[in-house]
Amino acid sequence: MTDQPDFLVIMTDQHRWDWLGCNGHPVVRTPNIDRIAAQGTTFDQYFVASPVCMPNRASFMTGRFPTVHGLRYNGCHLPVSANTFVDVLRAGGYRTAAIGKSHLQPMIGRKLPAKENPGPIAEAWKIDQALYGEEQPSRYQGEDAYDIPLPYYGYDHIDIVTDHGTEAGGHYRQWLRRNYPDLAESPVRGLPHNYSVPQALRPDMPEEAYTTFYIRDRASQYLTEQARSDQPCFTFVSFPDPHHPFNPPGKYWDMYSPDQFDLGTRYVDHRVPPLPLETLHADFEAGTPPATRTFPFMAREQHLREAMALTAGMITMIDDAVGTILDALEASGRADKTVVIFTSDHGDYLGDSDLLLKGPWMRESITKVPLIWSDPAVREQSARCAALTSTVDIAPSILHRAGLSPYNGIQGRSFLPVLDGDAVERRSDVMVEYNDANARQGYKSPARIRTLVTEDWTLIVPASERWGELYDRKADPRNIDNKWDDPRFANVRAEMMERLLDRVIGQMDESPKAVHPA
Fold this sequence. Notes:
25% of the residues lie in helices and 15% in strands. By secondary structure, it is of the alpha/beta class. The longest helix has 32 residues, at 301-332. A hairpin with a 6-residue loop joins strand 18 and strand 19 (469-472). It has one domain (6-115, 122-430): Alkaline Phosphatase, subunit A.
């Protein structure tokens, strides 16, 4: 074994920062994730690069923002020509594995891209369809595990779970056909229940057949197999939950009661509701359902509490799986040289302002998510880090800890100096991108939004709109009193706009480096 540490990254999906015991949630039980926090550093201001699954996962992999790495919204793809930090680890001698949800390519059966333009050439990029079908359902039709050509974005070993809940596919679906043939057809049938929140489904399947425990067992097995490896290991374990649909199986379905949950910020709390929120409220009052099940919607109080209870069940099921994985790591004998990282790809409104799911309205409930860094070199006690941090910072931090140089064009910065007390390295702000593929929620065109967060302020600017948002994070932590049009804060707005403009202008791709600069 070398002196380089192993890495175990555990990622959840659509998981708010405050829905962990270690982050103060009064109801949801997460003793095993809290166990990671008890021996690590918990970040209190970690923001995603984009509050959408695919763009942010690509930012995690590349250390670059969506407008630079190219995967701007769901249904797009990370170019196979893109380097990732996993590629750097692999080149540096690491064994690399991904188990669970990848979602760097489309996974729901749509052709990419749709050829809508007339003429022989439809897009600005040359795209070989054959290169971007590795997560599509058509590759996983039989019982025998489909062999993804490796390395896959840097991974030597990959076990894919696509989609969510009882409709999950990929290698998981092939395993289900072999081991639970009566459950193999998607979607799995549901059991009777008394919940009425949309997308609530009580799956008629044992807990052991559900994706969370499939990933648990695959990850535990892989860690056990690496026990005697003479190479350092990087293992990425990614759960598709606690994403909608709300369908925890078995005992996790009724582990929590809706009555246990209190609602936070409500729609009526906003002094001047911004356009996206106002539009969702108008749809709710008119009884208009969302256009697709992935779009956010406003719900009545009982539905919000039901969604919370079912989400809590999914989170505790993940936590139980994390406990088993941590036990497997301990049993492998490699725990004392493994950096364990826990995080999520984005959040969920989950009751915030009476909303569920996520969409083109920037709130900390969808932009701020958990990040825990547990390093075997400093596991004597827990710590908390208040520094502003971004998804793009994880890749350079892992490479820094592994003693490997990042590639040219990486946009994040290692947060390890901050953990060592170097105040000079602290970010003064973080930027969050949102790039929509559809015009919805009152936007005249597909939403292009940039958010800038500082210690004191949050600025939200949508393109081609005549409105924006400005919130005092300390005086108004719930972000309900929009100061955008308040003349008393015109100077603050101007300063924040100038800082945001500087960040946007600086988003040029610097790779490849010029050989003969002018």
